[in-house]
Automatic annotation (TrEMBL):
It comes from the Eukaryota. GO terms for biological process: meiosis I. This is MEI1 protein. It comes from Furnarius figulus.
């Protein structure tokens, strides 16, 4: 069935949303809701289908080729297809790397356009932003070096006009540019202020992965990003002026990030003590699983 559905997708055009969207969802869940042995076979089936991969590239490119909506952001059928496409490609990237599966057709994406899709949101629905960030996380974790993915479109002219230190910095962060990193961080901070649970989880996860990537590439840039004073204001905003519990998954994960990179200007001993005090007074058995996991990671990092 997986073979038949993937072949069917390969015969479609990106505008065939009524057929493609449930089909891509079926492929996505076939990858995730199966045993590891079957998962490896499923990845091999999908990555051997050149027509499917060519279609997925066209679907993803519609993200920046489509005109932004004039009204409020909502999930249209076209946006739903884009969500399915980004999530499926992120999963293929992840599992291709895990199983070292042979690739018969590479995906070529413009990195600048992918980043701009998050930085300049143009009223994109929350689910679409979450899907793109999921893809970005996987690409960052793989150092943009997957045999399935080729990132193109780096703006060399901008780098040529910058000073020598910035050029060296850009070279260290390649294929990202320093200005792109700072723009992305600001955009992620702004998205957190929306206080949407799904969006907050995706943003914090993306920020974690981004700083990990930067730390490997250039520790100075990573520590600079992690110690931005705006992060402290962001924490206060998430806490609604201190009226809300510190034991929120996204807050705990942010705190863990700042402790990990020793951002003492963002999180002080006082905040750490407050979290420990709240944890001591809480009924740990009644905490949601996401909160328990985040608290565990925070305590281990402390």
């Amino acid at each position: 069935l997986l073979f038949l559905v993937s072949n069917l997708c390969g015969k479609c055009r990106p505008r065939d949303t009524g057929l493609l969207q449930p089909s891509l969802n079926f492929l996505y869940w076939s990858l995730h809701q199966t045993t590891p042995c079957s998962q490896q076979r499923a990845v091999a089936v999908l990555l051997s289908n050149v027509s499917l991969l060519e279609l997925l590239q066209k679907v993803l490119e519609c993200t920046w080729l489509r005109s932004p909506p004039s009204g409020p952001a909502y999930l249209s059928s076209e946006d739903a297809l884009l969500c399915s496409g980004w999530l499926l490609v992120a999963s293929l990237l992840l599992y291709q790397h895990r199983y070292n599966t042979e690739v018969h057709q590479t995906l070529s994406l413009d990195l600048t356009e992918v980043l701009n899709a998050v930085i300049f949101r143009n009223k994109k629905p929350i689910l679409l932003l979450v899907s793109i960030m999921q893809f970005l996380r996987v690409a960052l974790r793989q150092n943009f070096s997957s045999s399935l993915l080729v990132m193109v479109g780096q703006n060399t002219e901008q780098g040529a006009t910058q000073s020598q230190p910035s050029s060296l910095q850009d070279a260290a962060l390649h294929p990202l540019a320093t200005q792109q990193v700072f723009s992305l961080v600001v955009s992620l901070q702004n998205l957190l202020v929306h206080k949407d649970l799904l969006l907050s989880q995706a943003v914090v996860a993306c920020l974690e992965t981004l700083v990990e990537y930067l730390y490997v590439k250039n520790q100075d840039v990573a520590l600079h990003v992690a110690s931005q004073p705006w992060h402290r204001f962001l924490l206060f905003t998430l806490l609604n002026g201190g009226q809300k519990s510190l034991l929120q998954p996204e807050v705990l994960r942010l705190m863990t990030l700042f402790v990990r990179y020793q951002s003492s200007n963002i999180i002080s001993q006082k905040e750490i003590s407050q979290i420990l005090q709240e944890a001591a007074e809480a009924n740990l058995a009644e905490l949601p699983e996401a909160t328990s996991c985040a608290l565990h990671l925070f305590l281990c990092q402390v």
